[in-house]
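Recap from last week: sequence in, structure out.
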Amino acid sequence: MQDFSTRLAKIRKHRKLTQEQLEELSGVSRCQISLYERSDRLPTLQSAIALADALDVSLDWLAGRTTQKG
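Predicted structure tokens:
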């Protein structure tokens, strides 16, 4: 099963977004997004929700709890 960092990077790239663009959409800083994608830090619940909303995926999918994106 893919973990949060892998899924975050995968869906961001699939949506053809840079980390800076995702920052603008989610309100989560580019630095934090980079740390999450490298598995150097786990997001707060608030940040994870903001990223899932900005990427139009479910929080469960982003966390690796389901294979259904929506």
